[in-house]
Amino acid sequence: MIKYSTFFIPLILNIVYTFNIPLLIASENLPLQSLLTKESKPIDSGFLISASDIQSHKKINGQKDYIFIDIRNSDLFQKVRISGSINVQLFAIKTKVFLKTKQLVLVNEGFGYKNLIQECRRLRKKGFKSVHILKGGLNAWQKSGGYIEGNYFAKKDLNIIKPHSFFQDKNYENIIVINIYRLDSPEPKALIPETINIPFSGNTSRLIDDLKETILSSTNDDLLYIMISDGYNLISNYIKEIDKNISDTIFYFKGGTQEYKQFLKKQALIWEPKKQIKTGKRCNVCN
After folding, report:
1. CB–CB of 224/175 below 8 Å?
2. Whole-angstrom Cα distance, residue 49 to residue 251?
3. How far, in Å, CA of 108 to CA of 112, rounded?
4. CATH 3.40.50.880 holds for 45-152
5. Would you identify the CATH topology of the domain 163-270?
6. In the chain, how many H helices and how many E strands?
7. CB-based burial of residue 9 (10 Å sphere; 0-12 exposed, 13-18 middle, 19+ buried)?
8. Are 160 and 75 in contact (CB under 8 A)?
């Protein structure tokens, strides 16, 4: 008799790897608190290239040396993309032998770097001349003045990060999470580890100064992106001004930490062991 685990476990792991699905290992009891912990991990910034560096290179050389490889699924690619980019799934790049001598820049939404870095290492070992990852992704390219084509609303939401996407990257020490709250409200408790709270009185200039001070005081020179956790609705009218003055790798939790908390609760429920219900009836097949 074939054991189900022998067949299904490798199949599930293959699906998780191929489609970049976050995998949580089930335990007998998986409390919400266990999902809130953070293990600081450095990121190999040698694989990253900024939008500004690419733009400068193009101005100096007067030619398009870089090929943008958008690794997202085809539906997302059709909605919004860098002009002239090509859509190739991450696992399939190694089969495109004609790309080996080109300067490749892998593109995604601007987060979820773990799998991209792993694939960059594999590709370089397989003889690909130059493979980098666009730091800040589509969002950073748009802010640098690079042309983005596609759906208007999709382009507008390039600076939004979803809870599951943040969860995949939460352990990287290159991330700063900032929580903006009303000055006349009590300072919120941090749901995300190492969150920096900044009060907002309605003075945008003061807020920008506070953000600059917070970001510039960071000792991490390889900062990937900043996330404003609860501030989206509070400062939605000032986001363009903040983005222009702060960073090209800033993202927002549109639903705030409450949305993230609901995501974590669902994750805990998914992996909670189901209790077996005894009916008292005997199984005719087993007997």
Report:
1. yes
2. 18
3. 8
4. no
5. Oxidized Rhodanese; domain 1 (3.40.250)
6. 11, 11
7. exposed
8. no
Task: Using CA atoms of 14, 137, 242, 59 in order, give the dihedral in degrees to the nearest 10.
Answer: 170
CA nearest to 158, candidates 136, 175, 135: 136
Categorise residue 80: left if φ over 0, alpha if ψ from -120 to 50, beta otherwise: beta
Is 45-152's fold the same as 163-270's? yes
Please answer whether residues 180 and 142 qualify as being in contact, where contact means their C-beta atoms are separated by less than 8 angstroms.
Answer: no
For the stretch 53-68, what's the b/e string if a residue is b when 16 or more beta carbons lie within 10 angstroms of its beta carbon?
ebeeeeeeeeeeebeb
Whether the CB-CB separation of 221 and 141 falls below 8 Å is answered with no
Given a cut of 70, whether residue 280 has pLDDT beyond it is no
Model confidence over 133-151: pLDDT tens digits? 999 999 999 988 899 999 9
Q: 158-188 b/e with 16+ CB inside 10 Å = b?
A: bbebbbebbbbbbebbbbbbbbbbeeeeeeb
* Structure confidence at residue 34 (pLDDT): 59
Please tell me the number of Cα atoms within 13 Å of 37 on its side-chain side.
5
As a whole number, mean pLDDT of residues 259-283 equals 68
Q: How confident is the model at residue 279 (pLDDT cuts 50, 70, 90)?
A: low
Instruction: Show the tokens assigned to 199.
Output: 């009060």
Which pLDDT tens digit goes with each residue over 16-39?
A: 334 443 433 333 344 555 566 777
DSSP designation for 93: G
Domain extent listing, the chain: 4-29, 45-152, 163-270
